[in-house]
Amino acid sequence: MKKLLLFILVLGYSFYGFSQDAKYGVRTGINVSNLNFDGISLPDNQHRNGYVIGFFAEYSLSAKVSFSPELQFSAEGAKIEPLNLDYIQAPILFDFKLAPRLFFEVGPQVGLKISKVGDNMKGLAFSGVGGFSYNITPMIFIDARYTYGFTNIFDNSFGYKAINSNMQFGVGYKF
Length: 175
What we know:
- The chain is mainly β.
- The chain has one domain: Beta Barrel (Porin).
- The chain contains one helix and eight strands, in the order αββββββββ.
- Strands 1-2-3-4-5-6-7-8 form an eight-stranded antiparallel barrel.
- The longest helix is centred in the N-terminal third of the chain and has 15 residues, at about 1-15.
- The radius of gyration is 17 Å and the shape is elongated.
- It starts with a helix and ends with a strand.
- The model has no long low-confidence stretch (mean pLDDT about 90).
């Protein structure tokens, strides 16, 4: 069921792709992520530095609003190896123009864990994304985002509760 939902989401991107006012591009950057445990304080719960890489489409809805679905690989979780989590993520962002080159981005994100199986962690994660993007040129941009997890990363039977939190600093190129 989870894979079907992700497949439908990606398929929906392709149907929307016939718009004439569309831009496509690639984006890469660094992650500074950690896990926020509920009710447990772990002294060695340190952040993980990782990376993100992916591609996106940008569809103008008006002069000040655009819609940007993405597909990306993101290395997240915490520093200790059992809590290293790698995801294929699909953020769906709405970009609001604040100034000629400055945009505010916000939207939901679904992530499919690809790093490990049988580790008492859920394979699907839902998050919210917010951030800012600045166009250096019409084709090159930089951005900063914060992602906050809405779902527990552990299976309910495991007894622990933790959510992902992640800061991304990226650069991208629009074709």
